[in-house]
Amino acid sequence: MSAVTTLDPPGPTVGQLLRGWRDRRRLSQMELALEADVSTRHLSFLETGRARPSRAMIIRLAEHLEVPLRERNDLLLAAGFAPAYPQTELDDGRMALVRDAVRRVLAGHDPYPALVVDRRWELLEANAGLALLLEGIDPAQLQPPVNALRLSLHPDGLAPRIANLAQWRAHILDRLARQVVATSDPQVASLLAELRAYPGDEPAPAAHELPGPEDVIVPLRLRHPSGELSLMSIVSTFGTPLDITVQELSIEAFFPADEHTAGVLRAAAGAPGA
Questions:
Q1: Coiled-coil ranges per the record (predicted)?
Q2: Which terminus, N or C, of the chain has the lesser number of Cβ atoms within 10 Å?
Q3: Which positions of the chain have pLDDT values less than 70?
Q4: How confident is the model at residue 121, as a pLDDT?
């Protein structure tokens, strides 16, 4: 008996991928054609496979569609071109300037917490100030690789200490859902499904927990022996990345939202003025 060979089904064509990204961005063919300065007819031919895009055209359309660098490489590969964007390990010698910049930001933010994550929210580095947020967490949750969002919402993680868990959970899930739309990353989608399955105070914030007209941020409110702490966060990214690893780095820096929290953080670090 002869062996039966099974072939993997072919992946989507570059035209199908472009159409998918255009749909995610909620752009008509005419809108994208006008933005990218191509004819609607030509764009239609590219999406249906009646015309083959050049390498330059793929990159041009990807820029206007705000396609992440990782997925731009997928577009190029689907069209038969070599990837245009490298992915360099963070510990590579060529990334020394990036590592130095990140560590300067982390060190400069002490005594307030700050951490660095990749696109899938894996914790890469953190400053000493993060220790206060990790107090009381099950050590098993801190075994690498540590996912920052999982750590935040897991019942054995930070969740039991979050005073406004329903509100914070809704904020995290909304952030992650928007990231799924932006990147179409199946691992991020899987993480979102996992976090949605975690128990919370409520499936959605109660009416009294929804932001009011006087609110401008969603704070992270933590129970602490010295009294409730209130923190707000700012997420920073590199502005002109040409490497996938660099584009996918995010620095989340937490700031005290009141003087009590600032004093506790300074005291924990033994900082002047504590």
A1: none
A2: N
A3: 1-10, 201-215, 271-274
A4: 96
What pLDDT score was predicted for residue 40? 96
Cβ atoms of 257 and 232 within 8 Å: the answer is yes
CA distance 156 to 152: 9
Q: Which pLDDT value is given to residue 46?
A: 96
Amino acid 213: pLDDT = 42
One-letter amino acid at 193 equals: A
What would the pLDDT profile of 170-207 be if each residue is shown by its tens digit?
A: 999 999 999 999 998 999 999 999 999 998 755 554 54
Half-sphere exposure of 133 (CA within 13 A, CB side): 28
Q: Are residues 98 and 177 in the same domain?
A: yes
144 lies in the same domain as 183? yes
Q: Is the peptide bond before 111 cis (omega within 30 degrees of 0)?
A: yes
- Please give the Cα distance from 205 to 174 (Å, whole number): 12
Determine which helix (DSSP H) or strand (DSSP E) holds 234, and give its type and residue range: strand 229-236
User: What does the pLDDT read at residue 207?
Assistant: 47
Residue with tokens 């929290």: 261
Question: For residue 226, what is the enclosing H or E element?
Answer: none
One domain, residues 179 and 56: no
Distance in angstroms (rounded) separating the CA atoms of residues 213 and 164: 18
- 8 belongs to a structural domain: no
DSSP string, 3-71: PPP--PPP---HHHHHHHHHHHTT--HHHHHHHHT--HHHHHHHHHTSSPPPHHHHHHHHHHTT--HHH
* Tokens standing for residue 169: 């959970």
Domain assignment of residue 23, yes or no: yes
Q: How far apart are CA 155 and CA 268, in angstroms?
A: 25
